[in-house]
Amino acid sequence: MDAVTIATSVLSLIAGVGVFLVACSMMSSNLEALGSRKLKALFSKTTKSKLAGVGVGAATTAVIQSSSATSVMVIGFVNAGIMTLAQAAAVIFGANIGTTITGQLVALGMFGENSVSTSIIFATFAGIGAFILAFAKKDRTRKIGGIMAGFGMLFVGLSMMSGSMKSFSEMESVRAFLATFENPLLLVLIGALLTAVVQSSSVMTSMTITMVVTGLIDLDQGIYLTMGANVGTCVTALIAGFTSTKNAKRTSLIHLIFNVSGVAAFLLIGLFLHLGGIEYGFIFGKMFPHAPQMQLAMFHTVFNTITVIIVLPLTDLLVKLVTKLVPDKKGGTEHDDEPRFRHVEEHMLSNPPVAVQQIKREILDMAETAAKNFQISIYTVCTLDYGSIKTFRANEKQLNFVNKELARFIVRLLKADLSERDRVYLSTAFRTVSDLERVGDYAENIVEYADKLKDANEAFSETAVAEITELKDMINALYSSAMDAYKNNSLLSLGEALETEERVDAYTAQMAENHIKRMSDGACTPEVGAQYLSLSTNAERVADHLINVAKTIKDAK
User: Fold this and answer.
1) What is the dihedral of CA 60, 62, 66, 67, to 10 degrees?
2) What is the DSSP letter of 136?
3) b (16+ CB within 10 A) / e for 416-443
4) How far apart are CA 151 and CA 417, in angstroms?
5) Residue 506 CA to chain centroid, in angstroms?
6) What is the rounded distance in angstroms from the CA atom of residue 419 to the CA atom of residue 207?
7) Who contacts 210 (Cβ-Cβ below 8 Å, separation ≥6)?
8) Furthest C-alpha separation in the chain
9) In Å, how far from its chain's centre is CA 250?
10) What angle do CA 488, 493, 498 make, to 5 degrees?
């Protein structure tokens, strides 16, 4: 074989890997955007049971075609404090099952040697999808076209890889060189290293299947390379985890320990089988005769499934182990009272539909914090009791942080491939975050009125306190209706909020008249009257900003 043929084979292999990676990315991004609601709902089911978590991990990875992406996403959830370590572990276990789907698709695409190849049939989806992308106008139709094009391109890339591998298999020197790699541990290490380099166990597994089918390596070599791919795929999650919180580090360790222990167990079993004169290749060769692609794909599925079955009951022990390996700091929590995101996390940018869901949760949490500060401010101004002022200050710092940082996060997320519905929601989220931060500002103003009363050795009368309390109750009712509208897109709750807001407007106007009369009667001093009128105005503006939040659901409809 001449130098030109060798160079062509190498370039074809590189091109095939590139097309395969682009196809995976194209499929996953369009599937995420098209099925964003279902993808969002999946992660809410992880709290039900460990088995549900496994199912969620498997389903999500099957959709986005990347166990690494799922693991990074889970680390983000743990880092944000919305998923426990046990839940995260179950999802990661499931991701290892879901990632075998790609291998099964590749194996299916390699049938039909003596007729029309299934790989060629599936590859035609690339043309069909491209045609849809060129002429479709609707966003949903274009997403479907993108999925079809990505699916077809998987097999275009596979065909290119297979062709290059076939050329290499005809070179005796290459086959002789690869035949020297018989040590299972060495093959596992090579598989792990190559997977870490290409950042995709799916690509490594697919390349290994083509190498086995073309005869470049035997089935047992392919099996150990595939086992190594399970270790190499942990690299991305380790990088994500060890740049985050302690729980995120623990999650990435769970991923590594789980995958390494599974490989170690199967290496040990393989050693005992070898001593008895039996190899994994012999077993799966008998189970799926004359179909080497299916033999390796099925080993991959069986290997990952059995590992999950063995480790799942030991999840709690695994969590205890990583907690000891990465202990908490003595004398406090990792975050203390520093402001931070509670639901959003940097690595969620890799999965836009889930990131959008978590932004909404962050905003709802922000709304609750703003409402708490309003309650504290009213209590403080009415009683001049500053017992909760430390909490108030911490809440204010949190509101300012979320207002600033969430806006930046949303700007970055808007650059991603989003569904039209998610894009519209994010455009309203900017205003919502600003409205809630303003609620916090008005609460801060009310506390300042308490400071002025205390400095002047003054206080509101019982009548004034009763009126302020009634106004507070109205705004509480408005908050409940507005947040229900925002959370559940409820037009009914929006209607209730609008009615309450009108009552707040009328009541604050009446409060002003009542207090002016009290001042004219000499029942209160001008200083007290000024603070009272300012308070009612600020409270009325709090109601205005809450109603603004509720009204955003009209834009999202």
Assistant:
1) 70
2) -
3) bebbeebbebbebbeebbebbbbbbbbb
4) 18
5) 45
6) 33
7) 106, 110, 158, 161, 162, 165
8) 109
9) 17
10) 135
pLDDT digits (tens, 9 = 90+) for 425-471: 999 999 999 999 999 999 999 999 999 989 989 888 888 899 999 99
For tokens 């403080």, name the residue. Answer: 380
CA 229 to CA 99: how far, in whole Å? 11
Whether residue 213 contacts residue 251, with contact meaning beta carbons closer than 8 Å, is answered with no
Q: Residue 118 corresponds to which amino acid?
A: T
| Verdict on whether the full-model pTM lies above 0.85 | no
CA-CA distance, 142 to 132, in Å (whole number)?
7
Q: Give the separation between CA 60 and CA 44, rounded to whole angstroms.
A: 13
Contact 259, 310 (CB under 8 A): no
Is-contact 344 365, C-beta < 8 A?
no
- Report the amino acid identity of residue 144: I
Q: Measure the CA angle with vertex 62, ends 58 and 64; round to 5°.
A: 120
**Residue pointed to by tokens 């402001």:** 339
Task: Pick left, alpha or beta for residue 116 (phi over 0 → left; psi -120 to 50 → alpha; otherwise beta).
Answer: beta
CA geometry: angle 387, 391, 392, nearest 5 deg: 90
Give CA separation, 91 vs 27, 206, 250, 251, in Å: 21, 23, 14, 11
Q: How far is the C-alpha of 205 from the C-alpha of 203, rounded, in Å?
A: 5
Query: How many C-alpha atoms does 540 have within 13 Å on its Cβ side?
Result: 17
Token digits for 10? 């190498």
Tell me: the pLDDT tens digits for 128-145?
A: 988 888 888 887 788 888
Tokens for 100, please give them: 């075998």
